[in-house]
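Hi support team,

I've been running sequence recovery on a batch of backbones for a student project. Most finish fine, but this one hangs at about 90% for roughly twenty minutes before it completes. I'm not sure whether the input is malformed or the queue is just slow. I've pasted the structure tokens below so you can try to reproduce it. Let me know if you need the job ID as well.

Thanks,
M.K.
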């Protein structure tokens, strides 16, 4: 019995010892901690990481964690945007406190920390450019653009030797120019920064030239040229003096980021030249020509450098030539450009499509200027008058009402051409022959030289024909050629912007002195041959019989 008891006591002791060992082992095992995703949202976690970085250097590794969060592959990831914004605040503080600048008093460990921070800063900029700005996701692109430009401003505040060429701005502009043409980020950049701040504009000019002259494949170069043109065309105001260069984005102490007005315009000129030399399309060429005199030429210290571009455009023909006229006029009047055979080329623009063109008003304004000199040969003026009156025969009413006042003004300005309205034939034999058989118009419509068309020997019978035009406004206006020339001249501006809609509205809103007479009684039958023939009845009978 005693042996059994001893054995049982020993067994109980062994069980007790093994139970205590299990409890100690259980206590020594670390309990699983709930993940941060389970007990707090991403915003709280990011704010916690940012706060720790601010509090102590020992938490600088949180920067790497935030960088990892900002690289989330999902385009609409809220965490990546929050992390990017938090990193901007972190680096802004580090820049402002000088913690990213080396000095001689630093220890080796401190120098290594500064180097590490600079590498993370460059990595952050690359994330904004690659993962955000090139993401194709508009909200993330807008955030990236705002943050990148914020870093540019903070660098200018913090760095004594700040140079905008070494800031993130240059890489930002290059990234924007390489984006697809339909991307809206450039419009935001143009509206908020490029069109507002002179230093941003100055640096962008330099970036455009540099990128277009770099090694790009044909597709990329074409895309960059289109985007550069779109960006440059968004500029409307051109500085005329140093006082106009006051709106700066960066805070640079000492030397201005825009050295002088001449340097400013020189960079703009180089950017425009690089863009125009990049084989722009026909439509892009029209866009440039449309704003040349007001938005492009004032940037050029030497607008003559665009002479080849304008003359090539002028020789293309059609609407492109019409638009190139204003640019050529600017160079002729302001820079004394000599364009050989100018009037011959101008005469060639009077083609079938001129009076139908949407650029008709612009052309007639310039044509009136070019033909204003009283020293032009009468034969030359007569050719322009005759050709336009001939084109008016099959032009829309809105085009005809421009031609007639212009012709009237030309007759007033050049009395030697009035023979085209009234010419006395003194040879009785010739007069009798013309009255009996008529005459051929001596004007040669196919002659390209306006001095050789024989228009001065012709007449403006086309204007008399227009007096029977179906449109009452045109018919009434054409009758001025048959009346006494008592009016000094017409203001062409009153007729340039007419259209079908305007002419129709004028006719519908005109006050009638009396109601027009209309046929209100419906005839019961058609006049037949048995009841007496007349031309109209005969015609109607034939039409009825053929049916």
């Amino acid at each position: 019995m005693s042996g059994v008891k001893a054995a049982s006591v020993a067994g109980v002791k062994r069980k007790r010892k093994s139970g205590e060992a299990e409890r100690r082992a259980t206590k020594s095992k670390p309990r699983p901690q709930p993940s941060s995703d389970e007990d707090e949202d991403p915003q709280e976690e990011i704010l916690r990481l940012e706060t720790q970085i601010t509090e102590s250097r020992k938490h600088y590794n949180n920067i790497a964690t935030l960088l990892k969060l900002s690289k989330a592959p999902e385009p609409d990831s809220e965490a990546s945007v929050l992390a990017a914004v938090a990193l901007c605040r972190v680096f802004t503080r580090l820049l402002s406190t000088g913690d990213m600048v080396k000095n001689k008093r630093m220890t080796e460990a401190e120098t290594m920390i500064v180097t590490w921070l600079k590498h993370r800063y460059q990595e952050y900029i690359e994330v904004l450019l690659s993962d955000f700005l090139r993401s194709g996701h508009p909200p993330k692109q807008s955030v990236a653009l705002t943050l990148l430009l914020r870093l540019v401003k903070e660098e200018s505040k913090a760095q004594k030797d700040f140079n905008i060429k070494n800031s993130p701005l240059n890489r930002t502009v290059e990234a924007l120019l390489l984006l697809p043409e339909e991307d809206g980020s450039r419009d935001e950049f143009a509206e908020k920064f490029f069109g507002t701040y002179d230093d941003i504009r100055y640096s962008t000019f330099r970036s455009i030239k540099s990128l277009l002259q770099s090694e790009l494949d044909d597709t990329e170069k074409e895309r960059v040229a289109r985007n550069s043109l779109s960006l440059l065309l968004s500029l409307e105001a051109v500085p005329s003096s140093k006082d106009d260069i006051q709106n700066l984005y960066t805070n640079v102490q000492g030397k201005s980021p825009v050295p002088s007005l001449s340097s400013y315009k020189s960079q703009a000129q180089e950017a425009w030249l690089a863009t125009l030399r990049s084989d722009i399309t026909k439509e892009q060429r029209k866009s440039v020509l449309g704003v040349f005199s007001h938005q492009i030429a004032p940037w050029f210290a030497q607008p003559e450098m665009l002479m080849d571009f304008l003359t090539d455009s002028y020789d293309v023909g059609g609407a492109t030539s019409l638009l190139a006229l204003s640019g050529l006029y600017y160079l002729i009047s302001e820079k004394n450009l000599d364009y050989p055979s100018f009037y011959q080329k101008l005469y060639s623009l009077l083609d079938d499509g001129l009076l139908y063109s949407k650029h008709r008003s612009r052309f007639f304004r310039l044509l009136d200027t070019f033909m204003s000199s009283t020293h032009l040969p009468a034969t030359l003026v007569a050719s322009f008058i005759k050709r336009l009156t001939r084109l008016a025969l099959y032009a829309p009413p809105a085009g005809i009402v421009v031609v007639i006042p212009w012709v009237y003004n030309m007759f007033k300005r050049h009395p030697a051409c009035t023979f085209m309205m009234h010419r006395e034939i003194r040879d009785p034999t010739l007069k009798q022959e013309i009255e009996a058989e008529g005459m051929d118009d001596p004007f040669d419509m196919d002659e390209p030289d306006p001095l050789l068309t024989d228009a001065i020997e012709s007449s403006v019978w086309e204007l008399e024909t227009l007096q029977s035009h179906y449109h009452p406004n045109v018919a009434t206006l054409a009758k001025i050629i048959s009346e006494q020339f008592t009016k000094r001249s017409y203001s062409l501006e009153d007729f340039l912007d007419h259209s079908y809609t305007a002419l129709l509205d004028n006719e519908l809103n005109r006050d009638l002195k009396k109601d027009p007479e209309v046929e209100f009684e419906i005839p019961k039958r058609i006049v037949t041959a048995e009841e007496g023939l007349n031309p109209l009845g005969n015609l109607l009978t034939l039409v009825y019989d053929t049916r």
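--
Follow-up from support: It reproduced on our side and the slowdown came from queue contention, not your input. The mean pLDDT is 83. No action needed from you.
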